[in-house]
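User: Can you predict the 3D structure for this chain?
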Amino acid sequence: MIKSADIEFDVKEPATAAEKVKEMVAQESGYTDNIRDYNQEDISMVVKVPERKLELFVEQISSLGNVTSKSFNSEDVTEEMINIEANIANLSALRERFWSLLNKATEANDILKIEKELNRIQTELDSIEGRRKSLKN
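Assistant: Here is the predicted structure, written as structure tokens:
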């Protein structure tokens, strides 16, 4: 499950509040992402904290100003993670078979074709592993 919250609030000093949010995020072993500063009057940021700390964290940062909107969302990514794991296993096995073929190849044309396919497989693996990492975060 991926849980998220969207909060908007008014504060007197947005830059100061943003710095305080960053400190609070760090204390919760989280991180900030996509910080956008609109002339120091409006600041938008994405913060990531461990799922088990989300609701308490939202309460804490809500105390920094006048909350104008707040919503919570959750998304079940179980099926996607299962598919990702299966794809990684299959592509890893395929990559090993191509490495084995590469070690046996003697013709330059065959070597180039195998290397091209290995590159394609590795690129796909990197992409899928990136998605897995994103979901886990």
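The helical segments are 14-27, 54-62, 78-104, 108-136. The radius of gyration is 23 Å.
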